[in-house]
Design goal:
The complex is a heterotrimer of chains A (171), B (373) and C (149). Chain A folds into two domains: 36 residues, no CATH class; 127 residues, 3-Layer(aba) Sandwich (Rossmann fold). Chain A is built from six helices and five strands; from the N terminus they run αββααβαβαβα. A three-stranded parallel beta sheet of chain A has the order 3-4-5. Chain A has a two-stranded antiparallel ribbon with strand order 1-2. In chain A, β3, α4 and β4 form a beta-alpha-beta unit. In chain A, α2 packs antiparallel against α6 and α3 crosses α6. Chain B is built from 15 helices and eight strands. In chain B, α3 packs antiparallel against α4, α4 packs antiparallel against α5 and α4 packs antiparallel against α11. Chain B is globular. Classes of the chains: A alpha/beta (171), B alpha+beta (373), C alpha/beta (149). Chains in contact: A-B, A-C, B-C. The interface between A and B is large, with 37 and 37 residues.
Chain lengths: 171, 373, 149
């Protein structure tokens, strides 16, 4: 009984007495599946990449949130964690990678440089001022320079909450 | 394989882009490879994907304001970058730092060297196929060092700890106890890694005699750091041109024999052991006193120049500061070790298989943040 | 070897080499390649070209070469002054292989042409970038100036 209450769609689940069957809406199950198995792309650009690896390592363990399967190919990924500074040469590559990801896809901007250019905003000629200025829609912004692994996990949980509250699950 | 059946088959070389987003290039490096089947016949690196124009930025920031930017150069060994920059600035301004600050700087720099070599070893083993175990072990130990730095200065990766004139916070007694506990904990762990990797048959087959860098080629390309020492050249700035208090420390400089990838890995493992020795000696000799001299925050040195190079975990990092009397430097040049280390890789990968190219690139331990600046 | 000995040997061999105030050797651009070849061989044996950089001094451009000798344990800094209208100098990439990428970087950031370089292209900025960023007169619409507080 206690286990069922922890499932996010708990208020919609009705347990049929006598058997191991429960009722819910297909939307909630779909959203629960999407949120609990986000596969990120190995896209560490700069310093935030080291914190991303540390989040994947043993002490902070992103795998317990279902997002520990880092894939190298964008065709197999759900979420693009942009970790690090984006420069002019790299801007085109990011757009191409984002276009190659299949729907439904999400973007997390990790670190100050990915949000707005960070400490490289002023007096530089070669830094793109944030992922947003490339024309990519960002779902979660995680500030910090670099953000602690706990912050990245909190950002991931926010993204999971956002997915679970989506209006249209089959996005 | 050129058997009787295959030698009449028409083959062609093709170009493939081991592009900026790749799990094994250790950052945003693009390698344009010409492949003949599995053999690499040509390699052209394209860099600049992380060019953050730090040298132009330095001309608009005061000397103290630039210290956080040096953290972001070689972001795995941030303390060593801070150290190189503030030593160049102190040489420019003729500032003498207290003895306690010198010993604290040596302790912190050597701990960061251990952390950096842990990352290098873990990712090298991951590239060769030991997918998770050495990486997780190495990062588990790195968390202990990062915890010490976190208590010291508040950040896990980009510390901004050294200042012109000393260090920002003093090393308190409980931090010193933490470091002593860590050294005792770390020594058997290095033996653990050696047991996992050093005489492992697969590791030896994948890294012995792969990417042999001869002495003359290494010196001609100005390769520095563990890569140079693995090729048989006994050159370490901490022994040959000592700075801070390294001349009072007793430690060995590990040197390799063949210059292959296995030697580069082994030199880093031995350097970790020597670094722990240095930290122990520095803690015993740590004098009492102030951790910094009061020099104010805005500096306007006389028009002159200074160049200072330190031994970074990846090689020799040099900072060249030119001042014109104003509060900001007129020119700052950062001589990064990975820039010259990477230049030799295209020569070494001609004629090897793709998988060996990944091994060679991993064993050189380059970092794009300092190549592109 | 002491710095005064080294500069004595060089000035004895090359009449045009001069001492600078900071203890370095100033060499005119025309004899740079000969001086470099001489420095590479014994007795001076500078086998390591550590760093090449340039400073834009408004009326002229100063090229600074930092050389070290691992076997001899001594170092030297060479300076070459170039006038703003004529930014050409010989490439040293056939003598020291490290000059290859270091000269490409100086070309990218300052616009100095190295004659005889095997592959003089930009290295840090995109290949079609206009202008040489580290010059003092460089301006770009992408630069957002830091506001004065």
């Amino acid at each position: 009984m206690a286990v069922i209450e922890k499932i996010p769609a708990a208020n919609l689940i009705a347990k049929i007495p006598g058997g191991g069957i429960f009722l819910t809406t297909s939307e909630s199950v779909l959203k629960w599946g999407k949120a609990s198995s986000l596969w990120p792309l190995t896209f560490g650009l700069a310093c935030c990449a080291i914190e991303m690896i540390a989040t994947g390592a043993a002490e902070f363990d992103i795998d317990r949130f279902g997002a520990g399967v880092f894939r190298a190919s964008p065709r197999q990924c759900d979420v693009l964690i942009v970790a690090g500074t984006i420069c002019n040469k790299m801007g085109d590559c990011i757009r191409r990678l984002y276009a190659q990801m299949p729907e439904p896809k999400y973007v997390i901007a990790m670190g100050n440089c990915a949000i707005s250019g960070g400490i490289f905003y002023y007096d530089t000629y070669s830094v793109v001022k944030g992922v947003g200025s490339l024309g990519i829609e960002v779902d979660v912004f995680i500030p910090g320079c670099p953000p602690r692994p706990e912050n990245l996990l909190f950002g991931l949980m926010k993204l999971q909450e956002k997915i679970r509250n989506e209006k249209n699950a089959a996005k | 394989m050129d058997t009787a059946q295959t030698k009449d088959i028409y083959t062609e070389e093709f170009l493939i882009n081991m592009g900026p987003q790749h799990p094994s290039t250790h950052g945003v490096l693009s390698l344009e490879l010409k492949l003949d089947g599995e053999i690499v016949t040509g390699c052209t690196p394209h860099i600049g994907y992380l060019h953050r124009s730090m040298e132009k930025l330095a001309e608009n920031r005061m000397y103290t304001q630039f210290i956080p930017f040096t953290d972001r150069l070689d972001y795995v060994a941030s303390m060593n970058n801070n150290l190189g920059y503030v030593m160049a600035a102190e040489k420019l301004m003729n500032i003498e730092i207290p003895e306690r600050a010198k010993y604290i700087r040596v302790i912190i720099a050597e701990l960061n060297r251990v952390a950096s070599h842990l990352v290098a070893t873990g990712t090298f083993a991951q590239d060769l196929g030991a997918f998770a175990t050495p990486l997780f072990y190495c990062f588990r130990e790195r968390e202990k060092i990062v915890d010490i730095f976190d208590r010291l200065c508040g950040n896990r990766l980009t510390y901004n700890y050294m200042r012109i004139g000393g260090v920002q916070f003093d090393l308190s007694d409980d931090l010193i106890d933490m470091i002593k506990v860590f050294i005792k904990y770390m020594r058997p762990r290095i033996d653990d890694y050696e047991q996992l990797l050093t005489s492992n048959v697969i590791f030896l087959a994948r890294s012995k005699n792969i990417g042999v860098l001869t002495k003359d080629l290494a010196i001609s390309y100005s390769v520095t750091g563990p890569n140079l020492r693995a090729s048989g050249v006994k050159w370490d700035l901490r022994k040959d041109l000592p700075y801070l208090v390294y001349d009072k420390m007793e430690f060995d400089v590990p040197v390799g024999e063949n210059g292959d990838s296995w030697d580069r890995y082994k030199v880093r493992i031995e350097e970790m052991r020597q670094s722990l020795r240095i930290v122990e000696q520095a803690i015993d000799l740590l004098p009492a006193g102030d951790p910094t001299v009061k020099v104010g925050r805005i500096h306007k040195p006389a028009p002159s120049e200074a160049y200072f190079r330190t031994e970074n975990p990846r090689g020799e990092l040099g900072f060249y500061l030119v001042s014109d009397g104003s509060a900001c430097p007129y020119r700052l040049k950062i001589r990064s070790p990975s820039f010259s280390n990477l230049a030799v890789v295209p020569e070494l990968v001609k004629g090897v298989k793709m998988a060996d190219l990944v091994c060679i690139l991993g064993s050189f331990d380059i970092l794009m943040g300092e190549i592109d600046r | 070897m002491q710095p005064s000995e080294i500069s004595g040997i060089i000035k004895a061999r090359f009449a045009k080499a001069q001492d600078s105030a900071a203890g370095d050797i100033i060499v005119p651009g025309e004899i740079l390649l000969d001086v470099a070849r001489y420095l590479r061989n014994p007795p001076l044996a500078f086998d390591n070209l550590h760093c090449i950089t340039a400073i834009d001094r408004k009326d002229k451009v100063e090229l600074v070469y930092t050389l070290y000798s691992i076997c001899g344990h001594h170092g030297l800094t060479l300076r070459v002054y170039l006038t703003q209208g004529d930014l050409n100098v010989d490439s040293l990439s056939e003598i020291w292989k490290s000059a290859d990428w270091l000269e490409r970087e100086v070309y990218d950031l300052f616009g100095i042409i190295f004659k005889g370089h095997p592959d003089l292209r930009r290295i840090l900025n995109p290949y079609d970038w206009k202008g040489h960023p580290l010059r003092k007169d460089y301006s770009s619409p992408a630069i957002v100036a830091k506001p004065k507080l």
